[in-house]
Amino acid sequence: xxxxxxxxxxxxxxxxxxxxxxxxxxxxxxxxxxxxxxxxxxxxxxxxxxxxxxxxxxxxxxxxxxxxxxxxxxxxxxxxxxxxxxxxxxxxxxxxxxxxxxxxxxxxxxxxxxxxxxxxxxxxxxxxxxxxxxxxxxxxxxxxxxxxxxxxxxxxxxxxxxxxxxxxxxxxxxxxxxxxxxxxxxxxxxxxxxxxxxxxxxxxxxxxxxxxxxxxxxxxxxxxxxxxxxxxxxxxxxxxxxxxxxxxxxxxxxxxxxxxxxxxxxxxxxxxxxxxxxxxxxxxxxxxxxxxxxxxxxxxxxxxxxxxxxxxxxxxxxxxxxxxxxxxxxxxxxxxxxxxxxxxxxxxxxxxxxxxxxxxxxxxxxxxxxxxxxxxxxxxxxxxxxxxxxxxxxxxxxxxxxxxxxxxxxxxxxxxxxxxxxxxxxxxxxxxxxxxxxxxxxxxxxxxxxxxxxxxxxxxxxxxxxxxxxxxx
Length: 473
Ligand code: AMP
Known about the structure:
- It is built from 17 helices and 15 strands.
- The protein is of the alpha/beta class and 473 residues long.
- The chain folds into two domains: 7-212, P-loop containing nucleotide triphosphate hydrolases (Rossmann fold, 3-Layer(aba) Sandwich); 223-367, P-loop containing nucleotide triphosphate hydrolases (Rossmann fold), CATH 3.40.50.
- The strands form three sheets. A seven-stranded parallel beta sheet has the order 4-6-3-7-8-1-9, sandwiched between helices. A six-stranded parallel beta sheet has the order 10-15-14-11-13-12. It has a two-stranded antiparallel ribbon with strand order 2-5.
- Helix 2 packs parallel to helix 3 (55-69) and helix 14 packs across helix 15.
- The longest helix is centred in the N-terminal third of the chain and has 15 residues, at 55-69.
- Residues 25, 28-29, 32, 51-57, 313, 315, 341-342 line the site of adenosine monophosphate.
């Protein structure tokens, strides 16, 4: 559908078309082609679109157009448009998009999230403001301090609404909705449509236009997916080997725990591979710095936990590695969606220990395809692998907490800086409240070599690749 459509056909103002040209976009993505005209008409919108589809421009461009059509003198601390997002990283990226696409317009924008000092934000709110991009927790802190006035909101965007619900933001969202004027345009973007999202949309949207560009749980077809079966204790060595062997220059590695992320980054650095870890225990400035270095190519490896990596927008990221499989199968889809974005091809490799076989099965069931098991060429497992740290208990295999999460139940909804001895709450939502202790399995007591043999999956470290599904440099 979008093949024949050009940005110039969508009804956007000239300054926006110029900014789009500067960004190098030649044609709208499907979500842009469908959503932009609907938003320009002024109605509500329900959009099913994942990160990577170009959804940010899909709402930012028409919003900038609408605001510029009705120029008002912006007032201090009283924005006209509110874009609510689940994470700091996404907030920063969305505001960057607002600036990029609005560079030939006169709008003022601001990003607001927790984990950083509130005073610079208060100072910024003393100046005129049109568009506010915020995470819910910090936004409510400002409302509480009366530094922010939401009575002038004309357009509300809930971006990655499903993630916000996952993270337990529903109560905060409801509080925020109650502070907004009733006459306004509402845009809701979500990658998935659970019953909770439907309920939220029903209460929020009036006769919404509907756009859906990615079917639920569809793993990007542009991403080549492979699995290497490997004992947990060999994974760090294998990671080094893979990076060196393939000459990967930009690889995002997902680990299940913050500690695991640190250990892997340290191991890679020891092997001469510059790597940085990002997770909720890192300060915002450390995360921003690591991300910038990763983006500009000065660090080839970024190791991240799911929540820290959420919403990361890196153009043409070629390689993603699941150092461990995620506990929730849908997270696998989100993870591999970090690559193969905006039409680029990409590869996702998963390192899977036999204890993760069940998770792998669940993922394959979800994406409705088998991921090829690929042997690793030339990898000689170390005679004495590093001892494993005790594993944290696995989370029960439940998709998402069901409605009405409390702050405790929903976890890290307020983006406050982590305090000493306190886990960043942003990292908590997927941790179980009542985690079952891990069942002892007979194989647990086997030696690594015996575990190799005990593993039912094909091939381990065959001398030659049976099949190579990933790209070579
Ligand atoms: P998003 O889904 O909004 O996170 O966007 C994913 C990536 O696609 C971003 O890096 C955008 O810069 C890029 N992008 C957005 N729109 C287009 C377009 N029309 N053509 C090419 N790239 C785009």
